[in-house]
Write a structure and sequence with these properties.
The protein has 2 helices and 5 strands. With about 100 residues, it is an alpha+beta fold. A hairpin with a 5-residue loop joins strand 1 and strand 2.
Amino acid sequence: MKDRVYEIYIEQNGDVCGLNLDDFNYRELGTARVRRVSNVEFDSKTQLWAARRVDGVVISFCATRRQAIDAEVEHFNTLVLENPYGIDAVLYSDQYKEPPIP
């Protein structure tokens, strides 16, 4: 089995932030607070898998579910890394532009 690399971020207030990949036990770091920040669902209109943030912004349209999940992970890891104000600042920023529908 291939080793997995986990990206976690420590926010300015000391909170640890990262995507839940099921096999990383965040509870070992303290009390966990888990919330959904995105969904990956099949889009009937486009006939593609869509990764969407909970605020409705489309992250990516992909041919396969796996590709959509990978795009979702890359999106949030990049945004969180680039934003020192945490995941809330990322989710409620109006600077992100939706990708075009293929």
